[in-house]
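Exam revision sheet. Question 4 asks you to relate a sequence to its structure. Input first:
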Amino acid sequence: MKYLNKTVFSLAVAGMAVLSGNVSAQFLGGHRIKSDEEGPKGQLMVYGSLDYTKVTTPSTSSSTVSSAPLGVGYFINNNDLIGVNYAYSQNTVDHNVVYKQNEAGIWYSPSLMLGKYFVLIGQIDAHYVWGQQQATAAEGMNNFNGFRLRAYPLIGILLGGGWALKFKFAELSMLQTKTKEEGWTKSYVAGISGSTFGVGISKNFDFRKKSDNDH
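Answer key, structure tokens:
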């Protein structure tokens, strides 16, 4: 029950953060597309990004491979999406894997248009997390699992043809994982920094049947 209460509270905080971003956008001239206007309602969106970094020194080398969530969403109206996504990260030191993490879950994303080519987007993720990390007291890897709750804003640039660039510039998140040996480990992220900045790309696909009036 204790963890359930924390989960509900964290989701509420994440929701308020996204709502606050949408309200702020309205003061900037943002608007939601009306239901009777042309928009992406009924379309599917695929999005994500892949990242690779490597650091080499005279004595050691390390690398990180990660995918910011790769997701598929459905426009329930012209402004809101729901969907599923998956993310993966792996850290390697001297060619030995010391950490790898998977996470998968559901997400919700409202948006507001800022003019013709820019969009302010909010996103909330609720993920199950699992993976392996290097054991501290012995050789080998320990399995872990847990959950992540995350909310963040993005600025989207519409490129035409259903393509868009997405720029994430802040984050509010909570990650809780546990192993049999160490119990629960908690980490939190809040604010704007280099670690909360990211760039991704998305593509909308329209599988709706065209009526004769659309030709």
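Marking note for examiners. The CA atoms of residues 49 and 200 lie 5 Å apart.
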